[in-house]
Design a protein that fits this description.
The chain is of the alpha+beta class. The chain has 4 helices and 6 strands. Helices cover 20% and strands 34% of the residues.
Length: 137
């Protein structure tokens, strides 16, 4: 009975995670603002077809990726070669068209989104392609 009372009193003594006890410091550090921020780069899809004559690719969006915004996108090949892409605004279901800005993407390359922090003169926006201007105006 005495042992049971001492165990219960330790649990009821008020030294919980929220009271600033010695055991709460690692939990507080894990909840810092660095953990809450989204990653700067994440995989959102893959290139399913490349049309070099027309200078565009067709991107199949992964289900968990959500919708695309004004972020910069790029393709990365298995060898590590990167290409810059600009979304045209055209889509059909999970498939999006993107103009090739730089590089030589190929079928099967992963497509990543690079988030910008909104600092600087551009405010994190890309210069729209001619197709994007026609759609949004």
């Amino acid at each position: 009975m005495i042992l049971m009372g001492s165990i219960t009193s330790c649990g009821l003594s008020g030294k919980s995670k929220h009271s600033g006890g010695a055991g709460s410091q690692p939990d507080d550090e894990a909840k810092g603002p660095e953990e809450v921020r989204a990653p700067l780069m994440r995989t959102i899809g893959e290139i399913v077809s490349v049309h070099p004559d027309e200078n565009f690719v067709l991107v199949k969006r992964f289900l968990q990726a959500g919708t695309f915004g004004n972020e910069m996108i790029a393709s990365i090949s298995p060898e590590g070669t990167t290409s810059s892409l600009i979304l045209t605004g055209e889509k059909l279901g999970r498939f999006y068209a993107a103009d090739i800005k730089e590089g030589k993407p190929s079928r099967g390359d992963l497509v990543v989104i690079r988030r910008t922090d909104g600092k600087g003169p551009s405010g994190g926006r890309l210069e729209p392609s001619s197709k994007m201007e026609n759609i949004t105006e």
